[in-house]
Amino acid sequence: MTDVAVGSLETPVGALHVAVTDVGLADVSWVRTRMALPVVDDPDRVAPVLAQLAEYFRGARRSFDVPIDWRQTGQLQREVLETLYSTVDYGGSVTYGELATRSGDRVPARGIGSIMGSNPVPIVVPCHRVVASDGLGGYSGGTGQDGLAVKQWLLIMEGALPPTLGWDPGHLAL
């Protein structure tokens, strides 16, 4: 990993910033890229990621097929995130405990929450689809104070939660 190409996309849940290495997508964030690598101007590298994210937010994409650069994740974190990515489809959800079981029971539910909070590529690897057994649970996405509102908006948009009264799919109401 020697450099990243970066790009941004305005979405109903705020501006998303992506960083793509020569291997694949390495970072999705609501703040500027969290990658401490030299930035290169390479629009062709980020275009497929931004296009797929735009399609997702328009409701025209239900899964992503961009390569992911997992090199900044630990082995166990990667295994849990790959299990999430491959077993929880658009419109679905899973509890922290269920994801722990699907991942081989090597991480307790509380540890699953920590792994979701450190997911380097939210939205694409859908940590917003992991919920508590008694509610939404937490969400570290968003701009800081709006994490749970972002999680709820994403789950409603995907059909995993029923829309609330007054819900506007084009706007995140905080």
Q: Care to describe what's here?
A:
The chain is of the alpha/beta class. The protein folds into two domains: 55 residues, Double Stranded RNA Binding Domain (2-Layer Sandwich); 84 residues, Winged helix-like DNA-binding domain superfamily/Winged helix DNA-binding domain (Arc Repressor Mutant, subunit A), CATH 1.10.10.10. The chain contains five helices and six strands; from the N terminus they run ββββααβααβα. The strands form two sheets. Strands 3-2-1-4 form a four-stranded mixed β-sheet, covered by helices on one side. The protein has a two-stranded parallel ribbon with strand order 5-6. β1 and β2 form a beta hairpin. α3 packs across α4. The chain is globular, with a radius of gyration of 16 Å. The N and C termini lie far apart (37 Å). The relative contact order is 0.15.
Instruction: Report the C-alpha radius of gyration, rounded.
Output: 16 Å
Largest pleated sheet: 4 strands, mixed
Q: Are there runs of 5+ residues with pLDDT below 50, and where?
A: none
CATH class of the largest domain: Mainly Alpha
Second rung of CATH, namely the architecture of the largest domain: Orthogonal Bundle
What is the ordering of alpha helices and beta strands?
Answer: EEEEHHEHHEH
Instruction: From the 3D structure, determine the CATH topology of the largest domain.
Output: Arc Repressor Mutant, subunit A
The structure class reads: alpha/beta
Number of strands: 6
